[in-house]
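Co-fold these.
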Amino acid sequence: MRADDGLFEPEGRASFNPADFGGLEKKEEWKYAHLEEVCGFAEAFEPSNSSRVLLNGSDAPEGEAEKLLTPRDRVEAAGFSSVGRAFPIRMPEGKSEIKVVNEGPRDAVFLSLDFGEGGKSDALLSFEGAGEGVYFLDVKAGEGSEASLTVLCRGGGKKFVYDSTRIARDAKAKRNLVCLGGEFVRYSSGAYFAGPGGEAEMNGVYFSSGKNYIECRVRVAHAVPGCKSRVSYRGALLGAEARSAWVGESIIGKGGQGSDSYELNKNFVLTPGAKSFSEPQLEIKNGDILSAGHSSSVGYFDPDQLFYLRSRGIGEEEAKKMIISGFFDELLLQMGSEEAEREFKDFCRKAGVRDGAQA
Amino acid sequence: MAHKLEVKDFKSSVETKEGPKEILKGVNLEASSDEIHVLMGPNGSGKSTLAYSLMAHPDYATSGSVRLDGTELELLTPDERAKEGLFLGMQYPVEVPGVPLANFLRTSLKALKGEAPSIRNWPGILKGYMERLKMDPQFAFRNVNEGFSGGEKKRAEILQLEVLKPKFAILDEIDSGLDVDALRIVSEGICRSHEEGCGIILITHYARILKYVPPDFVHLFYKGKIALSGGKDLADRIEEEGYDKLIGSLA
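Predicted complex below.
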């Protein structure tokens, strides 16, 4: 077990041994994914060690790193026991870029990113390549730091990502996710506060097209007083067989007095038949909080919005593109990452749901 | 040359649980763009249905004929009707999240005129229009109608009218929810458009806007039809006698 487990999930099931979780069942962690998509990841495997990990263009050195939290599901435990290489990276101040590229067979890699204390850093991390894998990402925002990390999840291949952010006293962590798929992506992001006065801003956009499946799980734990979290995720589904799931958990523990939390998820179903699940959860064990709320929706085009734009001469296709762009643009702006914005907008253009001219 | 709008035997129905329900029962109206027509009528008489049906809102199934300068609009989509020069000012303008008003209007201009004003000149041009309507120029950067007050939404409708310069505008209760000052500003915008050659069909409940937008024709709308037409004096009669009495005297 790990020292921080109590800050993240005091009561949940946690173990480094996959067998402790029993078999995979179509409930809880696995209720939205098709079991046949995940069952091949239920056991430990021999990693290919084929992933390249690049920091600002050069191979990052391997090393020793201790995982922040104990695994909380079977695939996480099996994946972590398969990890072949760990990459502890002390993030430099200012801008930096990390790439994790796997073009080979199944891999399991652990990255531990330390943003240090007091500094201000802004990093971009992308998962790329056609290879499949289970990836672990620990992010440490030290006392008084401002740590911003944007993750681009793209390329083919099944991917499981287990991402945890530890936010120390008075630190601000901004975590952006742009998830464009591969056939199957399950991205778990956890954030927890290790000292009072911390702030977590977690933004995500995802786009599931064709027969792809994207599952985003976001969990924020307030076990210490006076912290603030904002979770804002938006997704779109294109194609009758596209699927997505979003599960947001906001947990305010007994020690979380003065907590302020809000989580939002909106999904835009562009093609009838596509399936999108959205499940916000709020658990409050402390009566003395500032505020806690959530909002969640899955919707289609609003006929009145379309009519309004069309009544001003804008054709149906263009009106739809405007509405889709409008759905994402404010969140992309809020992310404040040029790369994330460009990546997402380019993807939408290639999918034919955004105009080239509107950059 | 003045434009001409001809509505003939125009019927419209909505789908309900009990099947289609006919709301417009054969509307006939001829209007020239150098005239201001006012439609008044009690709640539920079908005035808004007429406005939305003329613009081909998907909720309504229509029949009959709507011609603008001789072109039949009846089978055209809303955007095609807009391109022919028809405009609908809505009672409840729709919010479009994430789409700034300035971008929306520029896209609309491009769709209607085939050419958009240059990105460099556009903010200045739009600001000029907004100043005349005493709109805060910051509204150009806000999302279409999102978080606008009732009065701001109506000004934004008139802003669109003035920028897009249609041949004919149907304005559905553009005066409802406006305070005296806003009413005057909105009315001035309507009159400016009219002076520039836009035909006006104004749907209203209240005679007070007619002080600022003097009508050439007033039509009493009742049970899905124009029941009576007259001049400004008809509006005065409606204001004095009320719909019930006036309609009673027709029977």
